[in-house]
Amino acid sequence: MNAREEILSRLKPTVPGPAAIGADALLIAPERPFVDATALEEGFVAKLSLPSIAATHDRIDTLADLPAAILRYCIEQGLPPALYLPPDARLSGCDWSPFAVHEAAATEEPVVLAVARCGIAETGSLVFETAPDAPMLPNFVALHHIVLLEADRIVAHLEEATLPGPQPRAHYWVTGVSGTTDIEGTYVRGAHGPRFLHVILVRAALPRR
Amino acid sequence: MSDFGDRVDLALADPILKIAVERTAGTAEAKRALAVDAFPDFEDARDRAAAIKDHVIAHLGAYLEEFEANAIAAGAQVHWARTSDEACKIVIDICKAAGARTVARSKSMLGEEIGLPHALAEAGIERVETDLAEHIIQLADERPSHIIWPAMHKTREQVSLLFKARHRSPHQEETIAAMAESARRELRTQMLGADVGISGANFLIADTGAVCTVTNEGNAELSLVPPRVHIVTAGIEKIVPSMPHAVHLLRMLARSATGAALTQYTTFYTGPRRPGDRDGPEQMHIVLVDNGRTTMREEGLAEMLRCIRCGACMNHCVVFRQIGGHAYGGTYPGPMGAVLTPVLDGLPKSRELPNACTLNGKCQEVCPVRIPLPTLLRGWREKSWREGLEPKTMRAGLGVWAWFARRPALYRLASGSALRAMRVLGRGWIRRLPLAGGWTDHRDMPAPEARSFMAQYKSGRRR
Hints:
The structure holds two protein chains of two kinds.
Chain A: H1 3-9, H2 19-25, H3 40-48, E1 56-60, H4 66-77, E2 82-84, E3 100-102, E4 109-115, E5 118-120, E6 125-129, H5 138-141, E7 142-150, E8 154-155, E9 170-174, E10 179-180, E11 188-189, E12 196-202
Parallel strand pairs in A: 1-12, 2-3, 4-7, 5-8, 7-12
Antiparallel strand pairs in A: 5-6, 6-9, 10-11
Chain B: H1 3-13, H2 15-38, H3 42-58, H4 60-73, E1 77-81, H5 84-97, E2 102-105, H6 109-113, H7 116-122, E3 126-129, H8 132-140, H9 156-166, H10 176-192, E4 196-199, E5 203-205, E6 210-215, H11 219-224, E7 229-235, E8 239-240, H12 243-257, E9 265-269, E10 283-289, H13 293-298, H14 312-315, H15 320-323, H16 334-345, H17 347-350, H18 352-355, H19 362-366, H20 373-386, H21 392-405, H22 408-425, E11 429-430, H23 437-440, E12 445-446, H24 453-458
Parallel strand pairs in B: 1-10, 2-3, 2-4, 4-7, 5-8, 7-10
Antiparallel strand pairs in B: 5-6, 6-9, 11-12
Helix pairs in contact in B: 3-12, 9-10, 16-20
């Protein structure tokens, strides 16, 4: 018997009946933090400001306002106007002329822009999926991670951020900045990944991908 | 004195260790308490978490097959390993086939359990530990002393010396932030340049074939996205039926481990790079490891397979907080380690671990999946007795006690004279007690009442 057959032969069910029925019953009314469904944006922004997340945020009306908002952030932070832009066609209509734009992320990228699919009010998390126009690595080599999020795309709980059906290669939730407590339990910001997270909420819906 | 006894003596004599352990475990305990208080119905949520894990363990074969089919459909390759040796061989063969010289590893207790660091070294493959704590203990050539904070036994001064000796451009300033920055500089290029990335899994999602990792540092993603090959080694008990089940356990895991609502980076990987993707590995391999788990399920330790490796049991353990993790001598320390180590290393080598427990029940009170740890530890004690592993002095002593206990009149006479003898040795506290040096070498023994409970009861003084 090979390893697979031997392991499976010893794992016969210990209770009768198909597994799926019992599995669904375990998800009825799960205990979870209360989220005010009538104030998702306020709830989400309040989470961003928690010391454990320590993200900043800004609000813009339309996508056309995005370059100016990023420039504002760079000036406030004393950063040169250089930016990694993902190959997302929705961003190509913006005027990026104030920036030195990087199309390939280097080992260290001072400022990286990403577009989140949604935000989660329960935890203040940002939700991303990989795709040809949404590489993953730039979001982790960034020092300043700037995330564009449609204000209407904030969901209440973690469950609503999951995708049904076949999954993208990577689906990831970012909750605040990279941190560590590995030396004497002392919290340090920016362990391996981003040290700063800045969320820009856009009022108008983005064009379809 | 046994090996375990020697290690405990060393740990108790170390003036720095207890401070280091207390700093991190104490903070974790306080943060967990706040997170649990802020959560609605945490007790009900623990019931649900235990029920989810029990359901999976009951149907483990079916869920593994479902996971395997979905992972393969997404382009991953799935391997099965009965033992740690089989698991290591699979990993090394994949690394060799990929022509790998360097491997970036994202902290995984299963990797430690199966001895992967050693196997990689034997195969001549350079290993880069990317979690900050794992990096520290790799430089120090030590083993993890905690499953969440593997370097909790190290002080900042010790870390500073290590980094100054080993980093290419070490920190100048003696702050923890500067030390973390030095590790960031040192490891960034090594992670991006590795040939293979190896991780464990916090969850395997049966209905999608996805592998979930959680980190706060972001080192998993930096270690697993750039290399050509991603290898996952996961215990077969890590399965959950679907994403919503994983979500419930993630809420419990983060709160129980660090007191956070969620880890900073929670990632679900499904298969290798897709057409048109600009990053991601060309191959994804998942090694499903048994290593004693089917035996645990068959032999009365199924409840231990609920464990989601949060570390709350050790953070709250009075014994762990005195002796730290290394004294336990196994991969997993603390209460969960004392249950698992006899499975992994054999009871004859580890029978003292279940005895190094006060049975105060604190671990069971905080366990997010309600593992009855004290009951399982008592089970090991009984097994050790039945199999004749307890030392002769212990067997003889208990034999004498049992002989008296079956003869009540004689027992009362004997215990009465023992009480009188003990009161001669001290009033209030006894500093030295013949035959009980194991106790009085380290602390005083309270002197007993003048008469036994039974004697007082009979004379009508107890009501």
